[in-house]
Structures are given as structure tokens and as C-alpha cells.
């Protein structure tokens, strides 16, 4: 009962609390469906109970906050429903539609006792966010911006956004590092959270770091292990999808799921349902370059062989032709030489015969011109001072003359000149 002191009615804290408890219990007797964002699940493994922190936000600001209780048996049942429908457990950072009773405890204060959570509503919220992100990106004209970038001929320098301990990343590395064709890849890991609301700023921050040195990379790969729809909800976020869409080099994704493509995957240059498939995509790019090169090399080798074989045949033909022509030419030239030799011999014989006849004629002329023969016929030679006298004018009275006869010489003196 309240006390009366100095005409003042004074209630104890417990009395006030019980009054509030009674009033709320009488006023809120039913269960209510409530929508809120579950900021933290607060699951305690030792007891199995959860104490979710529920908030409502307007324009990014918290406008209401309330604690709640989810007892172990209810949590196990609800969590199993989430796993079956969403392939994900109940977790932090999702907007939920839950059924709860409203209660007040004098010791623990006001709370919501959650008895059920609708997993289909979570799917609907994810789909709504997805549609809104797509519409915004399309309205800004950037939805296909990354897809229109030129893709490198050989995407060997990769900036990888992932968690070092991710099984998906391990599978990716096994394929690209052990490929039987020995294609070489270079990569740099940019660690980031890949699940939940915190993954959004974490991935965006690493994309910003990569953007400062895009000349060092051919493409960005976002790699994550398997997960269900709820776990992938952050990849429908408008800000994350926009960061991928406007990135200056191609972004490729392998975030480990096979259904319901996220917005981030839609705007990426290329997406694969698993990290392993993404690795195969990159290796295929090397194939697309290497196979034509190998085929061209084989064509060059075959063409070279054919050309050499053709030239060898032509050379053999030319050699044989030259051999036949040489024999014919040699035979012809030999015949010509024999004929020329015969002609030359005949010519020389005739020439020698003619020259011999000429010499005989000259000899006879010389014999006839011999002074002895003239002297023998009665002619004589007159000389004065050793010189033959051919003109009378050259002889003077008193000159001594020498007259040569066939059989001797007569010396006389000119006594008279007529």
C-alpha cells in the first residue's frame, strides 16, 4: 500500500512497477504481429535462449528500440524453419515479421516475448530491397556500366576481395594454381567481411582501395563460399551494387549460390554461381587466347613444311632439268668445237699453202731482181765515192768512177762529159 507523508501519497518503485505490469497485462492480452529490424540476435549457447535487440529506423536513424526474448524451444523451431526455407539460420541484421506478446517485469522491465517469426516475410523484404536497388541503378543509367568495359585479353592480374579462410577462396586457388596448362595468375588479396550488414561497407572500402591502383590489375574478383538467400541479402544493397557497377575495371563474382541472382552479380561484368566456376571462367579466357595461337602455330608449321616440300620438288626438277640441259648444251658445244676445229685445220692448211705459194713467188721475184742476175745479162753498176750513179749530172770531169761488172770491177777517170 502507498504511504501518506505530509499529505503526499507515496508509492514504492515496486508498487509502480506492478501497477504498470498489471495495466499492460490487462491491455495487451493478445499476441501481435510486429515488424522490426533485428539488430542483434544475442543467442546464448549455454542456455539456448536469445535476447534479440529490435530497432526501427527512419532515414538511417533509430527511432525506436526494444529488447525481446526468444526462448530456447521457440528459437530451435524458428531457426529450423529458416534453414529449410532460406537455407540460412536466423541471424543479425535482417528485418523480420514476428509474433510476440507484450509484457512488463518489475525487475527486467518492458520486453517482447517472441513466439514466432515468418521466414517468408524475410524473403519478401529481400526481394523488395532488390527491386528498389535495380530501379535506382537503371534510373541512373549505370546498371550495365561495368558490363560494357573491355575485358582484358589475358586477365592474369587479379585483385581479390574475400576472406582468407573462405572455403570458396580455397577452391578458387586450387583450380587456378593447379591448372594442367600451367597458366600463370598473379593476385592480391583485399580482406573483407562477406556476410551481414557489415559486409557492405567492408567490401566498398576495399573496392575504393583497389580503385586507387587499377593500373596494377586486370580485374577484380569478389569471392565467397556457399550461403542461402538471407546471407546474400547484403549483395542486393544499392550502395554496394553501385560501387561495383561504376568500378573502372571489370568486376567478376563467385559468391557461392545457384539461385536468385543478386543485384551485385547482375551489375558485375561476369558472375559465376561458385568460386570454382569463376576460376574456370578465367582459365577459359586463357584458352580462348592460347588455342588460336596454337592453331596458328600449327598452321604456320604445316605451311612451312608444305612450302619446303614444294621448293624441294621444284629444286629437284630444276636440278634434273639443268642436268639434261647441260648434257645437251655440252653435246652441242662439243659438236660446234669439233666442227670449228676441223674448219680451223682446213683453213690453216689452205692458209699455209697460200702463203707458201706467195713466198715462192716472192722468192722468184727476188731472184730476178738480184743484181748479179742483171750483171750477168750485161748490165753494170757505176759508183762514185761508193754511191751508185743514177743521173749523169752527178758525174763531173775528173771524177774517178767504179764500174762493177758480172765478173769484176773496172776503175776509170772521167775525161770528157757529153
TrEMBL record:
Sorted UniProt keywords: Cytoplasm, Exonuclease, Hydrolase, Nuclease
For this chain, the family text in UniProt reads: Belongs to the XseA family.
Origin organism is: Sphingobacterium corticibacterium
Q: Where in the cell is it found?
A: Cytoplasm
The molecule here is called: Exodeoxyribonuclease 7 large subunit
Entry keyword annotation includes Nuclease? yes
Q: Which domain of life is it from?
A: Bacteria
Domain OB-fold nucleic acid binding, chain residue ranges per copy: 12-117
Underlying gene: xseA
Presence of the UniProt keyword Cytoplasm in the record:
yes
Reaction equations catalysed:
Exonucleolytic cleavage in either 5'- to 3'- or 3'- to 5'-direction to yield nucleoside 5'-phosphates
The UniProt record lists the Exonuclease VII large subunit C-terminal domain at: 143-363
Amino acid at each position: 500500500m502507498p504511504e501518506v507523508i505530509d499529505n503526499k501519497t507515496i508509492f514504492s518503485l515496486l508498487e509502480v512497477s506492478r501497477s504498470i505490469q498489471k495495466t499492460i497485462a490487462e491491455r495487451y492480452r493478445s499476441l501481435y504481429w510486429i515488424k522490426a529490424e533485428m539488430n542483434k540476435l544475442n543467442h546464448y549457447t549455454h542456455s539456448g535462449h536469445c535476447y534479440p535487440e529490435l530497432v526501427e529506423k527512419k532515414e538511417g536513424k533509430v527511432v525506436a528500440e526494444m529488447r525481446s526474448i526468444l526462448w530456447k524451444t521457440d528459437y530451435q523451431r524458428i531457426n529450423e524453419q529458416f534453414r529449410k526455407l532460406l537455407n540460412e539460420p536466423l541471424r543479425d541484421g535482417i528485418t523480420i515479421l514476428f509474433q510476440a506478446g507484450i509484457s512488463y517485469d518489475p525487475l527486467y522491465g518492458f520486453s517482447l516475448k517472441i513466439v514466432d517469426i515468418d521466414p517468408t516475410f524475410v524473403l519478401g523484404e529481400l526481394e523488395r530491397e532488390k527491386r528498389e536497388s535495380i530501379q535506382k541503378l537503371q534510373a541512373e543509367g549505370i546498371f550495365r556500366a561495368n558490363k560494357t568495359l573491355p575485358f582484358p585479353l589475358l586477365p592474369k592480374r587479379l585483385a581479390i576481395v574475400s576472406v582468407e579462410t573462405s572455403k570458396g577462396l580455397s577452391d578458387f586457388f586450387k583450380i587456378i594454381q593447379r591448372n594442367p596448362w600451367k597458366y600463370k595468375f598473379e593476385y592480391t588479396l583485399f580482406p573483407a567481411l562477406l556476410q551481414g550488414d557489415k559486409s557492405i561497407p567492408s567490401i566498398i572500402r576495399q573496392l575504393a582501395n583497389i580503385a586507387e591502383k587499377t593500373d596494377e590489375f586486370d580485374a577484380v574478383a569478389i569471392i565467397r563460399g556457399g550461403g542461402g538467400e538471407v546471407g546474400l541479402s547484403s549483395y542486393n544493397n544499392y550502395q554496394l551494387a553501385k560501387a561495383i557497377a561504376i568500378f573502372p575495371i571489370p568486376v567478376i563474382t563467385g559468391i557461392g549460390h545457384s539461385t536468385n541472382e543478386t543485384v551485385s552479380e547482375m551489375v558485375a561484368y561476369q558472375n559465376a554461381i561458385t568460386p570454382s566456376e569463376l576460376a574456370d571462367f578465367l582459365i577459359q579466357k586463357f584458352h580462348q587466347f592460347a588455342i588460336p595461337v596454337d592453331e596458328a602455330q600449327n598452321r604456320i608449321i604445316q605451311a612451312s613444311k608444305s612450302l619446303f616440300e614444294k621448293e624441294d620438288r621444284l629444286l629437284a626438277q630444276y636440278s634434273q632439268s639443268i642436268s639434261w640441259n647441260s648434257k645437251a648444251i655440252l653435246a652441242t658445244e662439243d659438236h660446234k668445237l669439233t666442227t670449228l676445229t676441223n674448219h680451223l685445220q682446213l683453213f690453216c692448211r689452205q692458209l699455209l699453202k697460200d702463203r707458201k705459194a706467195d713466198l715462192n713467188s716472192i722468192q722468184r721475184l727476188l731472184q730476178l731482181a738480184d743484181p748479179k742476175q742483171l750483171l750477168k745479162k750485161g748490165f753494170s753498176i757505176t759508183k762514185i765515192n761508193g754511191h751508185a750513179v743514177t743521173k749523169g749530172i752527178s758525174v763531173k770531169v775528173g771524177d774517178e768512177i767504179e764500174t762493177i761488172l758480172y765478173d769484176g770491177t773496172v776503175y776509170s777517170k772521167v775525161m770528157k762529159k757529153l
